[in-house]
């Protein structure tokens, strides 16, 4: 479904800066696309991570796609948001 140069970062309880740092390191290691995925209570946190990353990297990244849906997790349906961002060259 995703290209080999895509990394999915699942957003959870860790501090927002941890996810921003993970994304920056991934870009430096050659990953072209990152998907920030927040489920349930962490949907708004995924958006916060995107804006913190945008503040840090500015115009060197772009928001490519936003996917909103639900998926079955441990037998329950959970809402999610997936923000696909790409590094500009």
Automatic annotation (TrEMBL):
Coiled coil start-end: none
Molecular function terms, GO-annotated: nucleic acid binding
Domain DNA/RNA-binding protein Alba-like: 8-69
InterPro entries recorded: Alba-like_dom_sf (IPR036882), DNA/RNA-bd_Alba-like (IPR002775)
Superkingdom: Archaea
Name assigned to this protein: Alba, DNA/RNA-binding protein
Organism: Staphylothermus marinus (strain ATCC 43588 / DSM 3639 / JCM 9404 / F1)
